[in-house]
From TrEMBL, chain A:
Lineage: superkingdom: Bacteria
Gene3D superfamilies: 3.30.70.20
Record protein name field: 4Fe-4S ferredoxin
SUPFAM superfamilies according to UniProt: 4Fe-4S ferredoxins
The UniProt record lists the keyword Iron: yes
GO MF annotation, one: metal ion binding
Alphabetic keyword roster: 4Fe-4S, Iron, Iron-sulfur, Membrane, Metal-binding, Transmembrane, Transmembrane helix
One Pfam family recorded for the sequence: Fer4_7
Segments crossing the lipid bilayer: 27-48
All residue ranges annotated as the 4Fe-4S ferredoxin-type domain in the record: 61-91, 98-132, 247-278
Taxonomy of the source species: Bacteria, Pseudomonadati, Pseudomonadota, Betaproteobacteria, Rhodocyclales
Automatic annotation (TrEMBL), chain B:
Residue ranges annotated for the 4Fe-4S ferredoxin-type domain, each copy included: 287-315
Residues annotated as transmembrane: 62-83, 113-131, 175-192, 204-226
One Gene Ontology term of the molecular function aspect: 4 iron, 4 sulfur cluster binding
Name assigned to this protein: Ferredoxin
Organism of origin: Azonexus hydrophilus
Amino acid sequence: MSENEPRPAAHKPAMSIEKAQKARRKFLQSVGLTAGIVGISLLGYIPVTSARTTRLRPPGALDEADFLSSCIKCGQCVQVCPVAAIKLGDIDDGFGLGVPYIAARDQACDFSCDAVQCILACPTGSLTYHKPDFLGVRAGAPLAHAPILKAKENDAEPSLNLKERFGVARLARPESCLAVQGKGFKGQARGPAFKGEMRYVDVDRWAPIPVRDHPYERDICDLCVTECPIKDAISLQPFVNEAGDQRFMPVVQEQCVGCGVCEMICPVEPAAIVVDAQAVWKGAAR
Amino acid sequence: MSRYLDLLKGMLGAAPKRPEKVSEKVQKIMFLKYEDKDRYIKEKLHARDHHIVSHKWRNRRWAVLIATNLLFVFSFWLDIQILEGALTASRFVGFHLIDLNSALHVMLAHKHIIVNLFIGTFTVFLLWVLLGGRSFCSWVCPYHLLAEWTEKLHLWLVDRKIVTDHEFHRGTRTVFWLLFALLSVVTGYTIFETISPTGILSRALIYGPGLALGWIFLLLLFEVFWSRRAWCRYVCPIGLTYGAVGALSPLQITYHVEHCFHEGDCRKVCLVPHVLDVTVKGRAAEETLGLGPDCTRCGLCVDICPTGALRYEVKGLSKLL
């Protein structure tokens, strides 16, 4: 029992060479550990600076850099979303680890919560109704007026409390758009295996149902227009194509908030219309 | 007061000091203890023989830790909505709760504090002032439990001389705390959250596993094969943040020199053995001493001590009772 051995005198003897070497080794290893861990933590910069994936953030999100810094990575927004549109980033998102995003093609935000629950749930103001004044506003980000939710159109307060868009839809592949080809659509928009959900006011205003349970029948495909939850955000416009045929084309309007429902519902693969995450409105002639 | 400062310095990484002056009462206790060496040894062996090895506090702690984390999980999975969110920030039946270290980094990185963030942080601050600061580590943090389990493997390997424990300087954690705080301020990103096993594990439990668990696995490997409990001992700034909060806490583990045979069993099981330096013969200056802010109040020492020299105590309350 080493504790019972007599103690040396109170004054410290000079450090032996062996002990000094040990202390030095310990110090160097500690420096190594520090450099290693900090180095690894800074690897998170790679996905962020290379902007490998620009994620669609939930509604009310601050601009990307502010969003990443203010998000506390708790996932409360994930928990309140009625259609489970919000996912959390993984470690390959770097500093975006644990930060919410929406994969619109799989499950878009259809505002079936009516009040933008994720904004209400956010404890740090990363998702917010009122952006603090000291944060800048990007040109083309603000919406001309509060977006009117089609589902609430007859309510006393039909609008969503959203001041900025979180993306903008774009007809990325007009050649594959069914309307442009003059085609209609019949059946399940995304096939029988698709797990995405939407709220259909004529079915049940308060309970979203799987898209596969709500088949469509259209002479000219206009799903992106009719299923868009926001009023005046997209319209189907006639045009005459090169062959001289009368055709239609979905045209995104300035009230588009970037929710991604059009991308989710588009029945062709890959989607003809997509939402550009974090994009701003650059005018109608896009 | 000077002991109080020494304990804080000890938490930051300073080596424990011998007391300059030992109180007369303790001197008397020590004199009586060692007056008759044969009797002392006999008593010691007697105490060992009659020690019923219990895991009372460890079991209670594991139950609390698992229950807390499951409450998070089921609040989401079963939609019982009692404790919504993750360990970094949550709502307990609607009240905001925000992890102190995560809140600190968000404030440093974003440089803006909204009311809910402040309320949640303050509530949690008060909670852990009462409950003992670093008790967050051993009673709540899911990484602590995993690390505690893999520590057994490490000790088994050490026992068979297959691996050795490589100690780092405990001050490394203080350097990490400062570096990560600085990084948050300078870069504007909450960089520590990217590698924090506490947040990663909490989210993995609640929202499902991901690649980030690979990082946890690497950390555990490092702890098994290279350095015992390295993350909690030498790296994790969360521990230091909660330690600072616990410095004010009335809930402590206290040491009673009168009952101690200075065998050092407690130091062998302890995550932060420097707090148990007082149990070394001649290091206790007072009859009863709190172990200080770096103690995680895990109770392993309470369980292992055959003579009840280490106890849970609530300052003020114990005298009242």
